[in-house]
Amino acid sequence: MNDWYEAAQATFGDRLAGAREAAGLTQDALAERLGVQSDTIAAWEEDRDDPRANRLQMVAGMLNVSLMWLLTGEGEGLDGPPGAVAQADAERETLREIRDIRTVLAELDARLDRLERKLTTGEPQ
Questions:
Q1: What is the DSSP string of 54-94?
Q2: Rounded-to-integer distance, Cα 13 and Cα 48, Å
Q3: 102 and 122 co-located in one domain
Q4: Among 19, 26, 16, 21, residue whose Cα is nearest residue 48
Q5: Domain match, 51 and 95 both
Q6: Shared-domain flag, residues 22 and 66
Q7: I need a labelling partner for 4 at 20 to 30 A (CA). Which of 12, 53, 111, 120 fits?
Q8: Are residues 65 and 17 part of one domain?
Q9: Residue 23 sits in the same domain as residue 44
Q10: DSSP 8-state secondary structure symbol assigned to residue 122
Q11: Looking at the structure, do residues 66 and 96 belong to the same domain, yes or no?
Q12: 92 in the same domain as 125
C-alpha cells in the first residue's frame, strides 16, 4: 500500500492539512480551536512556519493523530488523503458485492446443472 504521508512522500504541512481535512475542519475552525490566526494554520500547512511544541501537541490531540505521525509520518495517523481513503473503502465494498454475486451465480449454476441432468437422464422430479 502506498504510504501517502511517510517522510519521503509528504511534509509536516501535508500531514497537517490531511488530518485537518479528515477531521472535517477548515483552517479557520482549527485556528479558532487553537487560539491562533487562520494565516498561522495556512503557514504551517504550506511549511512556511512551524508550530511551537505546545501547539503541536494540541493539534495532534484535536486531529486524533499522534505527534510522531505529524512530525515524521510514522505512528498513528491517516492511511491516505481523505478522498483516497473513502474511495478505497468504496472499492472494497464493491469488490465484496461482486464476490457475493459470484457466489450466488455459482450456486445457481450448480442448481441449473442438477436440473439439466434430471431432464437428460429422465429422473422423476
A1: HHHHHHHHHHT--HHHHHHS-SSS-SS-HHHHHHHHHHHHH
A2: 9
A3: yes
A4: 16
A5: no
A6: yes
A7: 53
A8: yes
A9: yes
A10: T
A11: no
A12: yes
Here the cell at position 24 is: 472535517
pLDDT band for position 124 (cuts 50, 70, 90):
low
3-state helix, strand, coil in the chain (%, to 5): 65, 0, 35
pLDDT digits (tens, 9 = 90+) for 61-101: 999 898 888 888 887 777 655 555 556 567 778 888 888 88
Q: Please give the pLDDT value at position 1.
A: 39
Per-residue pLDDT at 35 exceeds 70: yes
CA distance 64 to 27: 16
Domain that holds residue 53: 12-72
Share of the chain above pLDDT 90, in %: 38
